[in-house]
Amino acid sequence: MEFIIFWIICSILVAVYASSKKRSGFGWFLLSVAISPIITFIILLVSGAPSSTLKKCPKCAEEIKIEAQVCRFCNFEFSKPDVETVDVKNP
């Protein structure tokens, strides 16, 4: 009985850590209960941060898509980032 309680508490800790990394806490909790809290924690550490598809508007602080050039909430216009070109010399 104590083992089951320990298992669930560890799974909750994995879920809290996953939520802090902007991942689905509930999904990681279920995976942790089904497999193992230790294994899912290791997988969570190795998987890294999720790729962000949103950016924050500097004027209104709302999240919008990375590709957006104008904020749909406040009509703030983003400047296009300057693309640096790197010359690659062939040996």
What's the story with the biggest beta sheet?
2 strands, antiparallel
Relative helix content: 40-55%
Q: What does the radius of gyration come to?
A: 21 Å
Order of helices and strands: HHHEE
Count of all domains: 2
* Beta strand %: 5-15%
Global geometry: elongated
Distance between the terminal alpha carbons, to the nearest Å? 67 Å
- The overall pLDDT, averaged over residues, is 83
Strand tally: 2
Please give a handful of descriptors for the protein shown.
two-stranded antiparallel sheet; 3 helices; mainly alpha; 2 domains
Structural summary, described in words:
This protein is mainly alpha-helical. The chain has helices at residues 2-20, 25-34, 37-47; strands spanning 54-56, 63-65. Strands 1-2 form a two-stranded antiparallel sheet. The chain is elongated, with a radius of gyration of 21 Å. Mean pLDDT is 83; it is low at 82-88.
